[in-house]
Design a protein that fits this description.
Number of domains: 4
Number of helices: 14
CATH architecture of the largest domain: 3-Layer(aba) Sandwich
Shape: globular
CATH superfamily of the largest domain: Alpha-D-Glucose-1,6-Bisphosphate, subunit A, domain 3
Distance between the termini: 38 Å
CATH class of the largest domain: Alpha Beta
Strand content: 15-25%
Radius of gyration: 22 Å
Helix content: 25-40%
Largest sheet: 6 strands, mixed
Amino acid sequence: MIQTRIFKANDIRGVVTGPEPEWDAAGAYAIGAATADVFGLSDGGGALVLGRDMRTTSPELAAAFAGGVLSRGADVIDIGLASTDGLWFASGSLGLPGAMFTASHNPGDYNGIKFCHPGAQPVEPDELVAIRERALAGPATPAAEPGTATSRDLLGAYADHLLSLVDLSGIRRLKVVVDAGNGMGGLTTPAVLGSQNLEIVGLYLDLDGSFPNHPPNPLEPANLLDAQAAVRANGADLAVVFDGDADRCFVIDERGEVVSPSTITGLIAVRELARDPGGTIVINKITSHSVPALVAEAGGHTVITRVGHTFVKAAMAEHRAVFGGEHSAHFYFRDFWGADTGMLAALHVLAALRETTEPLSRLVARYSRFAASGEINSTVAEVEPVLAALEQQFGDRATPDRVDGLTLTGDGWWVNVRPSNTEPLLRLNVEAPTEAQVVALRDEALAVIRS
């Protein structure tokens, strides 16, 4: 059973439990067979590496998907429980296409699949369409010779690779709160950070796909409250908060204040440009304008692309960019096959703190030059009439563009509204020189969006 709506712009995601599931194990089998065909793996054409998160439905769905792949004569290398960046590592290090069973930050009744080509390269939207059409038509006739399934444990190699990219030797002892939200950060944190000179205060490191403590979505401020409180209560130097599949990482300073992902993007961009002078940095349309300014001052070049890992990865590859960052706390690295990894971003923040005696709040202040609203979500019946109304509302003060949703750029400020790729939401982001301007622009935009 497969509902067409589970196929999103960049991946597959839908409800799998409850009274109205959108796909099931039989659907996963069909998708596996279709993936083998579309990726050219059928009839002995190659192998696919498979990972899964800790959601309660992941073992069944991943096994069914593997069965579909094997039925078409393709091989499966199963790495078992993994973060999404662990799957990217497997694809990159083994030179194989991959499939990761996860619904990232969505609630526990969801599951999904993220795909990649060998070297963790992105899958094109038309390939997802082809997988959808083949899967909806039902599994193809089994191959004469089924594929072979093998298992590999790559967690240690993943940790070693990340630690080879950032020098933490001689790091001053730091106290770090890590909130894994019962997601895959609970697996990767001990493997990567456990050997460093750090005192780890762990929050929800146990893997639990029912997410009993808070939803695994650090974009929602309520889901950061526990880590903020733990920083203050423990006198920690910082906190890192991972989403469900641990490919994103939010940072909280020693005061318990959230550091904007755009600020982290600026910090890492400057660090990467220091070792690759004149390099290219990729950001999305709603990353802070602070970042291009910092990149230019560091002698680098900025490329702006649409929101979403498919678009950022494609731009990373096209421009041989050294680093990329998104407002949603996805951070991409050339040395990680151009893919996103929250853990490597966290290592960069720790390394930057190692090089100074300043607290994190003072360190990151130099990378932030504007006030921002953060992402604000609204449910709307129809998107286009709202965008048209916003364009009319701000038309005499701003220049519009439709590169990614609607961006209205005024005198030192901008407002962006775009539909989500994965949820039925309209997302608002505002940036301006002062907090007062942000509040005024935010409230004006929300009045139109929610009217």
